[in-house]
Design goal:
By secondary structure, this protein is mainly β. It has 1 helix and 17 strands.
């Protein structure tokens, strides 16, 4: 019902206003309407003696405390404060939703500094990424129930006690030292299937054991994978010493069961040696992982030996050829070698026939005959002149 105003006339007691009855009726109906609104009932539920059931009347300009009030689509302005200090929000779904403006600005929450001169915003992802997910803050035993700082994806921060599972590092990305300088750089190979594995160790520190107790840097991926070390420019791969007598830099090459190994080591500091050494050239045939050429030993010099008992060309990939003859003559030949190569030929069994050797290029003649056991020659291959006799014991040179 609309408000009804009592007509009091134009002048006092001029008889033009509402009668006492009409005026009183308007007053009653106005109060009935007011009581009904406050009590939240129909006007006809208000009668003589009806009491106000509301705890109070809310006014638009006064400061009042409201309890258990439901606000539908309220518009809040200015600053909201609480008497207790904390603002507790208890929505039915336990979700406080800050809406975007539908024109490019996402929902945001700003947390101000203590003097409220600046603040940091928590902003939702852009509409274009279709993000509907939950972000959970760390806490509890995960962070030891201690206060913590969130990690930025662009800032420089120190992280402790973090476990990284399959972290992805950009091509050319690096792990920096304490000063920010590059310490380990990661380079990317397209469609890579092979990688390195780094394995730590407990106690022992021995790599020459069936189960290594030393830390390991190994290749991984396919069945057979090399492990490469690549110096920069003319640099070297150096094995440094940790110091101490007879503790030169060394490389150990283990047996196939890793139960023992052979060690290459440098001369001691007292020798003052910084020389270069080159491995000898491999034999031209028969050289393989299972049948490698053997280096000379400082304890004893043992050359590879071949047995000859038929007409054939002697091998230039062995040091010694041992000749066995039958009852008839045996014709053998010797191909050209490499400059500086040594070849020894000796008769070990005399069956009655003579073995005649014809070198391809021979400085001392044409042939060498071996007629008796112990007939032996040592040859040296020289540039342009071919095989040269260094020593001869019993053989006949023609």
């Amino acid at each position: 019902m609309a408000y009804q105003k009592v007509d009091i006339g134009t002048n006092a007691n001029d008889g033009t206003g509402d009668t006492l009855r009409v005026g009183a009726d308007k007053i009653n109906e106005n109060f009935e309407d007011l009581f009904a609104k406050i009590n939240g009932v129909a006007n006809n539920a208000i009668s003589d003696g009806t009491a106000l059931t509301s705890a109070g009347v809310v006014l638009t300009t006064s400061t009042q405390t409201l309890t258990n009030k439901t606000l539908t689509a309220p518009v809040l302005g200015g600053t909201t404060t609480t008497a207790s200090g904390n603002l507790i929000v208890d929505p039915a779904t336990q979700i406080v939703e800050v809406r975007g403006d539908a024109n490019g600005v996402e929902g945001q929450i700003q947390l101000n500094c203590h003097v409220n001169t600046h603040g940091q915003k928590i902003t939702a992802a852009d509409h274009s990424v279709n993000a509907t997910n939950t972000l959970t803050l760390p806490g509890g035993t995960t962070i030891g129930n201690a206060d913590a700082t969130l990690v930025s994806d662009t800032g420089t921060q120190t992280l402790s006690g973090k476990t990284l599972t399959a972290p992805k590092i950009a091509d050319g990305g690096f792990i920096a030292d304490a000063n920010g300088a590059e310490q380990i750089i990661f380079q990317t190979t397209a469609s890579a299937v092979n990688e390195i594995e780094i394995t730590n160790a407990a106690t022992g520190g021995a790599a020459s054991a069936g189960a290594s107790t030393a830390p390991i840097i190994g290749a991984s991926g396919e069945t057979n994978v090399d492990l490469a070390l690549l110096p920069k420019g003319t640099g070297h791969v150096a094995i440094r010493s940790t110091g101490g007598s007879n503790n030169q830099g060394a490389i150990r090459l283990n047996c196939e069961q890793n139960t023992h190994g052979q060690t290459l080591m440098s001369q001691p500091h007292s020798s003052g040696d910084s020389g270069f050494f080159m491995l000898p050239k491999a034999s031209t045939s028969g050289n393989a992982r299972a049948t490698p050429d053997v280096l000379l030993s400082g304890d004893k010099t043992v050359g590879t030996v071949e047995a000859i008992n038929t007409a054939t060309a002697l091998s230039v990939d062995t040091l010694v050829s041992e000749v066995t003859t039958g009852s008839s003559a045996l014709a053998i030949s010797l191909p050209n070698g490499v400059v500086g190569q040594i070849k020894i030929i000796t008769m070990v069994v005399d069956g009655g026939g003579t073995a005649t050797l014809t070198p391809a290029t021979f400085a001392n003649g044409t042939t060498i005959d071996f007629a008796d056991v112990n007939d032996t020659v040592m040859l040296l291959y020289a540039n342009t002149i071919g095989w040269v006799v260094v020593s001869n014991s019993g053989a006949t040179i023609s």
